[in-house]
Amino acid sequence: MSTSENAPAPEVDAKVISLDEVNKHNSEEDCWIVIHGKVYDITKFLDEHPGGSDVVLNASGKDATSEYDDVGHSNTANKMMKEYFIGEYEGGDSAPEGSAQANASPGAFQTLMQFLLPLAIILLALYVRNMTQQK
Ligand code: HEM
């Protein structure tokens, strides 16, 4: 038993990093970024980023979750970023998956209307027929 003793601790012991701390690292030489409640040191990744270094630099030193999600990054990108993880963000995830936005689907209302509207028309027709037959 030997090699793993000095290995870095897994995410369980991850350091909690504040926004103030993240703010200090917003340059090309020292670039941190917050995405989904996690802090990444992407200094070494800047030149490799397929979307260019400028776009990530502009979003550095802050919570860039919405910018990251807006691009619709692939699973490859999601896996890639794990390599640069340095700690948990104090402010948590600003856009957790399955959050309000995702759940409040406009489709639910539409489906309900598709069912209720014909039902209302049928009931109205029955009511009218009933009324005319009584006379
Ligand atoms: C550690 C964080 C990031 C990683 C690992 C990463 C990785 C990648 C990868 C692998 C791609 C190629 C397309 C794909 O596979 O999705 C990509 C494209 C791109 N990324 Fe990122 N990215 C990161 C952060 C960001 C941020 C914060 C922004 C915006 C502020 C951003 C903006 C873009 C843009 C604009 C493209 C180009 C999309 C296109 O050409 O269609 N990325 N990124």
Automatic annotation (TrEMBL):
In this chain the Cytochrome b5 heme-binding domain maps to 14-90
State the family named in the UniProt similarity comment for this chain: Belongs to the cytochrome b5 family.
The protein's matches in InterPro entries, at most eight in alphabetical order, are given as: Cyt_B5-like_heme/steroid-bd (IPR001199), Cyt_B5-like_heme/steroid_sf (IPR036400), Cyt_B5_heme-BS (IPR018506), Cytochrome_b5 (IPR050668)
Where does it live in the cell? Membrane
Highest taxon in the source lineage: Eukaryota
Taken from the UniProt entry, a GO cellular component term is: membrane
Sorted UniProt keywords: Heme, Iron, Membrane, Metal-binding, Transmembrane, Transmembrane helix
Q: What is this protein called?
A: Cytochrome b5 heme-binding domain-containing protein
So where does this one cross the membrane?
Answer: 108-128
The answer to whether the entry has keyword Iron is yes
- A GO MF term: metal ion binding
Q: Name one Pfam family in it.
A: Cyt-b5
Q: What is the species of this protein?
A: Pycnococcus provasolii
